C-alpha cells in the first residue's frame, strides 16, 4: 500500500468515555468483520476486561475504508488502555502511530486521564482530532466541553467531531476526518528494515506474537531478523495483520502495523521498544528506545492451602509469560509458608493478576499488604532496595530511609474539593497546585506512593461519590522518617502484616490495625493479645477475649436447615483461615486490617 493511503492512529480517552465502543463502531462500519462476528466490545478480549469494562492490553486492528474520494485507505488503530497503571503501554503505542482521536464524553468533560493520555499524544507529536462522544444523551454539553478542551488542554477544538459511538452518529465523518486531518506515515521502502517492537504477548497456539510497526524497509516471511538491543536472532515464521482476527500476509512495508512470529521462547526475550532489523545488511542506528516498565508495587501471594503451592507456581509462570511487566520471585514467610513476592505496575495490575490466578487457576490466595520499594541507607554505607517490609534491617544499623513520591493530578467537581484536600493532607501530601476550570477543580499533589498504593483510589472514589479522576507519575525518592511496624498476634509477629509507616503516624495506624484485627479474628478458647510494635516497643494493644461457643446455640435448637447452613458457613470460613501459632486468622483480615477509614 502506498504511504499516502495509510493512516495510523490511537484513541485516547478517560476510562468509560467510550473508547472501546467507538473502536467497535469504526470496525463495524467499515465491514471489517461481519455482523455475526461482531460482538460488543470486540477489542476487549480477556474475560476480566469484559467484566470490568476496562482494556488491559493494547490491541490493534487494521481497517479498510473506501473514502468519499473513492480511494481505499488502510487505517491502523492501536487501542490503548485508559487506566493509570498502564500509562506506559499508552506511551509505547503512541510512538507507533502519527495521530490520535481524543475522545471526551460530552456529558462529563475532560478528566485526569484524558489529560495524562493526551499529553502523551502531544509528546509523540501527534495530530489530534477531538471527538465529543455520547451526544445522544440529553445531558450532553458539547459547547461547554469544547471550550474546556481548549482551556485545559490548549488544542483547537472548534472542529471537534460530534459523535454517538453507541447509536452510530458521526462515525462516517470521523473516518473522513482521520483521512483528511491525520498525516500519512513516512518511510523508505528501499532502506534497510527498521521496525519498532511495539508489544508482545504469548499465544497458546502461535507462541510469542510480536506487534511491529515498520518504519523503513520491508519485512518478509522467512527473513532472518535481529533485535538490535538484545542481539537475539530469529527466522520469521509468519507475518500478518489484525482484522481484528489474525490474517497472514506476505510482507509488511513502511507505515504498516502488523505481527510476526518466530521461534521466540518467552515474552521476556522481546524488549518492548527494541528495533528489529535484518541480520544481514541491517540498519545501523536503532530507533530511540523506550524506558523499560518497572514494577512499583509489590506484595506477597500465598496459597491459602499450602498444598497448592506448585499450582500457584505454575499459574504465575504462565501469567508472566504473557506479561513482561509482572515480576515474581519465591518467598517464604514464617507464618504463610511458601509463596511468591510479586511486582506490579500498580494496584489495578495487582488486582487483575490476583483475580486471574483465583479464577482461571482456581487457587485461593492470601495477598499481603502492597508495598513500594524503599531505599534503605545503612550506617556502613550499604544501600538496600527494600521490597518487603518484613526484610527491613534492625533500625540501629539504619542511617536513613527514602521512599518513592508521586505527582498526583486529581480533577473533581468543586463541591467535593474539601474532602479531597483533606484526604491528600491525611496521606502526607504536599499541595503543588490548585486551579479551577469549568466547575471543576484540578489539584496537583506531591504524595508518598506508599500512602497511595493501598486504598487511596477507593477512598477518593468514595469521598467524591465517584466523580473524581486521578492520575499519577513517579517523581523520585525522598528521605522521611519511616519505620517498620510489626503486628504481633498472641505474641507472635505476623510478617504478612508488617508495614513501613511514617513515625508520626505509627501510633494511629497501629491502634487502628489492632482494633480492626480484634474484630476480624474470631474468638478462641484463650485470650489473644494483638499488638503493634516498632523495633520491640509496643505502641498499641488490644485484647481479644476468650470465648468459644457452639455457633448454632443461637438458633435455639430449632430449624435444622438453618443450623446446617450455619455449620457449612463456619466450615467454609475455616478453609479460608491460616494458623498463626495457635491462632486462626481469616484471609480477609490481611487486606481489611490495612484499610484506613
Ligand atoms: P475503557 O476501554 O475501559 O478504557 O473504557 P472506554 O473508554 O472504552 O469506554 P466504553 O467504550 O467501554 O464505554 C463506556 C460506557 O459508555 C459503556 O457503557 C458504553 O455503552 C457507553 N457509551 C459509549 N459510547 C456511548 C455513546 O455514544 N452514547 C451513550 N449513551 N453511551 C455510550
From TrEMBL:
<comment type="similarity">
    <text>Belongs to the GTP-binding elongation factor family. LepA subfamily.</text>
</comment>
<dbReference type="GO" id="GO:0003924">
    <property type="term" value="F:GTPase activity"/>
</dbReference>
<comment type="similarity">
    <text>Belongs to the TRAFAC class translation factor GTPase superfamily. Classic translation factor GTPase family. LepA subfamily.</text>
</comment>
<keyword id="KW-0342">GTP-binding</keyword>
<dbReference type="InterPro" id="IPR027417">
    <property type="entry name" value="P-loop_NTPase"/>
</dbReference>
<keyword id="KW-0378">Hydrolase</keyword>
<dbReference type="GO" id="GO:0005886">
    <property type="term" value="C:plasma membrane"/>
</dbReference>
<comment type="function">
    <text>Required for accurate and efficient protein synthesis under certain stress conditions. May act as a fidelity factor of the translation reaction, by catalyzing a one-codon backward translocation of tRNAs on improperly translocated ribosomes. Back-translocation proceeds from a post-translocation (POST) complex to a pre-translocation (PRE) complex, thus giving elongation factor G a second chance to translocate the tRNAs correctly. Binds to ribosomes in a GTP-dependent manner.</text>
</comment>
<dbReference type="InterPro" id="IPR000640">
    <property type="entry name" value="EFG_V-like"/>
</dbReference>
<keyword id="KW-0648">Protein biosynthesis</keyword>
<dbReference type="GO" id="GO:0045727">
    <property type="term" value="P:positive regulation of translation"/>
</dbReference>
<dbReference type="GO" id="GO:0097216">
    <property type="term" value="F:guanosine tetraphosphate binding"/>
</dbReference>
<dbReference type="GO" id="GO:0003746">
    <property type="term" value="F:translation elongation factor activity"/>
</dbReference>
<dbReference type="InterPro" id="IPR035654">
    <property type="entry name" value="LepA_IV"/>
</dbReference>
<feature type="binding site">
    <location>
        <begin position="133"/>
        <end position="136"/>
    </location>
    <ligand>
        <name>GTP</name>
    </ligand>
</feature>
<dbReference type="InterPro" id="IPR035647">
    <property type="entry name" value="EFG_III/V"/>
</dbReference>
<dbReference type="GO" id="GO:0005525">
    <property type="term" value="F:GTP binding"/>
</dbReference>
<dbReference type="GO" id="GO:0043022">
    <property type="term" value="F:ribosome binding"/>
</dbReference>
<feature type="binding site">
    <location>
        <begin position="16"/>
        <end position="21"/>
    </location>
    <ligand>
        <name>GTP</name>
    </ligand>
</feature>
<dbReference type="InterPro" id="IPR000795">
    <property type="entry name" value="T_Tr_GTP-bd_dom"/>
</dbReference>
<protein>
    <recommendedName>
        <fullName>Elongation factor 4</fullName>
        <ecNumber>3.6.5.n1</ecNumber>
    </recommendedName>
</protein>
<dbReference type="InterPro" id="IPR038363">
    <property type="entry name" value="LepA_C_sf"/>
</dbReference>
<dbReference type="InterPro" id="IPR004161">
    <property type="entry name" value="EFTu-like_2"/>
</dbReference>
<keyword id="KW-0547">Nucleotide-binding</keyword>
<dbReference type="InterPro" id="IPR031157">
    <property type="entry name" value="G_TR_CS"/>
</dbReference>
<dbReference type="InterPro" id="IPR005225">
    <property type="entry name" value="Small_GTP-bd"/>
</dbReference>
<keyword id="KW-1003">Cell membrane</keyword>
<keyword id="KW-0472">Membrane</keyword>
<dbReference type="InterPro" id="IPR013842">
    <property type="entry name" value="LepA_CTD"/>
</dbReference>
<dbReference type="Pfam" id="PF06421">
    <property type="entry name" value="LepA_C"/>
</dbReference>
<dbReference type="Pfam" id="PF00679">
    <property type="entry name" value="EFG_C"/>
</dbReference>
<dbReference type="InterPro" id="IPR006297">
    <property type="entry name" value="EF-4"/>
</dbReference>
<dbReference type="Pfam" id="PF00009">
    <property type="entry name" value="GTP_EFTU"/>
</dbReference>
<dbReference type="Pfam" id="PF03144">
    <property type="entry name" value="GTP_EFTU_D2"/>
</dbReference>
<feature type="domain" description="Tr-type G">
    <location>
        <begin position="4"/>
        <end position="186"/>
    </location>
</feature>
Amino acid at each position: 500500500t502506498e504511504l499516502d493511503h495509510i493512516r495510523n492512529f490511537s484513541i485516547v480517552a478517560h476510562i468509560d468515555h467510550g473508547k472501546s465502543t467507538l473502536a467497535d463502531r469504526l470496525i463495524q462500519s467499515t465491514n471489517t468483520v461481519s455482523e455475526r462476528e461482531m460482538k460488543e466490545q470486540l477489542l476487549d478480549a480477556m474475560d476480566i476486561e469484559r467484566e470490568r469494562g476496562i482494556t488491559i492490553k493494547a490491541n490493534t486492528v487494521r481497517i479498510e475504508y473506501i473514502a468519499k474520494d473513492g480511494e481505499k485507505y488502510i487505517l491502523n488503530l492501536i487501542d490503548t488502555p485508559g487506566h493509570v497503571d498502564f500509562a506506559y503501554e499508552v506511551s509505547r503505542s503512541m510512538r507507533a502511530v502519527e495521530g490520535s482521536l481524543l475522545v471526551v464524553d460530552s456529558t462529563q468533560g475532560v478528566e485526569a486521564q484524558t489529560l495524562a493520555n493526551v499529553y502523551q499524544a502531544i509528546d509523540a507529536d501527534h495530530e489530534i482530532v477531538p471527538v465529543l462522544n455520547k451526544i445522544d444523551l440529553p445531558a450532553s454539553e458539547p459547547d461547554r466541553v469544547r471550550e474546556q478542551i481548549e482551556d485545559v488542554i490548549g488544542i483547537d477544538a472548534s472542529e471537534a467531531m460530534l459523535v454517538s459511538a453507541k447509536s452510530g452518529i458521526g462515525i462516517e465523518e470521523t473516518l473522513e476526518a482521520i483521512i483528511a486531518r491525520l498525516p500519512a506515515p513516512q518511510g523508505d521502502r528501499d532502506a534497510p528494515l527498521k521496525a519498532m517492537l511495539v508489544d508482545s504477548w504469548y499465544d497458546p497456539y502461535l507462541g510469542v506474537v510480536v506487534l511491529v510497526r515498520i518504519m523503513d524497509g520491508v519485512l518478509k516471511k522467512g527473513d532472518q531478523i535481529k533485535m538490535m538491543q538484545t542481539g537475539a536472532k530469529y527466522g520469521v515464521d509468519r507475518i500478518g495483520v489484525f482484522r481484528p482476527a489474525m490474517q497472514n500476509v506476505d510482507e509488511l512495508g513502511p507505515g504498516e502495523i502488523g505481527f510476526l512470529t518466530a521461534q521466540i521462547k518467552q515474552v521476556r526475550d522481546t524488549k518492548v521498544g527494541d528495533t528489529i532489523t535484518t541480520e544481514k545488511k541491517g540498519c545501523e542506528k536503532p530507533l530511540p528506545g523506550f524506558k523499560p516498565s518497572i514494577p512499583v508495587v509489590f506484595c506477597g501471594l500465598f496459597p491459602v492451602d499450602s498444598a497448592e503451592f506448585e499450582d500457584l507456581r505454575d499459574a504465575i509462570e504462565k501469567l508472566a509469560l504473557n506479561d513482561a511487566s509482572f515480576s515474581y520471585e519465591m518467598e517464604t514467610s514464617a507464618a504463610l509458608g511458601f509463596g511468591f513476592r510479586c511486582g506490579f505496575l500498580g494496584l489495578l495490575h495487582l488486582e487483575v493478576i490476583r483475580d486471574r490466578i483465583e479464577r482461571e487457576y482456581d487457587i485461593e490466595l492470601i495477598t499481603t499488604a502492597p508495598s513500594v520499594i524503599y531505599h534503605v541507607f545503612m550506617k556502613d554505607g550499604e544501600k538496600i532496595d527494600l521490597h518487603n517490609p518484613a526484610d527491613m534491617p534492625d533500625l540501629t544499623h539504619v542511617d536513613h530511609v527514602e521512599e518513592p513520591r508521586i505527582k498526583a493530578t486529581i480533577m473533581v467537581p468543586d463541591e467535593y474539593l474539601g474532602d479531597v484536600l483533606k484526604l491528600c493532607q491525611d496521606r502526607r501530601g504536599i499541595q503543588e497546585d490548585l486551579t479551577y476550570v469549568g466547575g471543576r477543580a484540578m489539584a496537583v499533589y506531591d504524595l508518598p506512593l506508599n500512602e497511595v498504593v493501598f486504598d487511596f483510589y477507593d477512598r477518593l472514589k468514595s469521598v467524591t461519590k465517584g466523580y473524581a479522576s486521578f492520575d499519577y507519575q513517579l517523581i523520585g525518592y525522598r528521605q522521611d522518617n519511616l519505620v517498620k511496624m510489626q503486628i504481633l498476634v498472641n505474641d507472635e509477629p505476623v510478617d504478612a502484616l508488617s508495614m513501613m509507616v511514617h513515625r508520626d503516624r505509627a501510633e494511629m495506624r497501629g491502634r487502628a490495625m489492632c482494633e480492626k484485627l480484634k474484630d476480624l479474628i474470631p474468638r478462641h478458647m484463650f485470650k489473644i493479645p494483638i499488638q503493634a510494635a516498632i523495633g520491640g516497643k509496643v505502641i498499641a494493644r488490644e485484647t481479644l477475649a476468650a470465648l468459644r461457643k457452639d455457633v448454632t446455640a443461637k438458633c435455639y435448637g430449632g430449624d435444622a436447615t438453618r443450623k446446617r447452613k450455619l455449620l457449612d458457613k463456619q466450615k467454609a470460613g475455616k478453609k479460608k483461615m491460616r494458623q498463626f501459632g495457635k491462632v486462626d486468622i481469616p484471609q480477609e483480615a490481611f487486606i481489611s486490617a490495612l484499610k484506613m477509614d
